[in-house]
Amino acid sequence: PAKIGAIGTSDYKLSTQYFLTAGYRFRGRKIDVIPSTLISFSPFANPTTDMTLTLDYEQKISLGMGSKYLNSAYVALQLHLTRSIAIGYSYEYALSEIVNVAPNTHEFILSISNCTTEKRKTGFVCPAYQ
Q1: Which residues lie below 8 Å from residue 19, measured CB to CB, with a gap of 6+?
Q2: DSSP string, 50-113
Q3: pLDDT for 49 beyond 60
Q4: Maximum distance among all Cα pairs of the chain, rounded to whole angstroms
Q5: Sorting pLDDT into bands at 50, 70 and 90, what band is 1?
Q6: Are 128 and 115 in contact (CB under 8 A)?
Q7: In Å, what is the CA distance from 110 to each residue of 30, 41, 95, 120?
Q8: What values do phi and psi take at 8, rounded to 5?
Q9: Which residues lie across from 52 on neighbouring strands?
């Protein structure tokens, strides 16, 4: 839940945030193209949209770029160390008036998943962007 209210007052309300995400993996010979979007909304706030375009080379290295509600732009790099472990880095630059307070962010990512993008006859396969 997010706190909604004036800063510096005790007039806060908790509000649930909702998220809707969608994307698709366009398979290529060596490079897959993955456009995706994330829409978040709350009863007391305007909805926001994140748009991302990721290029995935042989499911070993991924490079993504996107925008968060046109308020910031970001790039991300992900290296798949094993089938289930990946590390990454993301850099985000603010494009709105927040640039005066927090012009950029750096994120380091550790991803652990039991999902696979390999085709199997049996077993668990995650459907996200397959």
Answers
A1: 38, 39, 40
A2: EEEEEEEETTTEEEEEEEETTTEEEEEEEEESSSSEEEEEEEEEE-SGGGGT--EEEEEEEEE-
A3: yes
A4: 58
A5: very low
A6: yes
A7: 24, 27, 27, 25
A8: 85, 10
A9: 36, 66
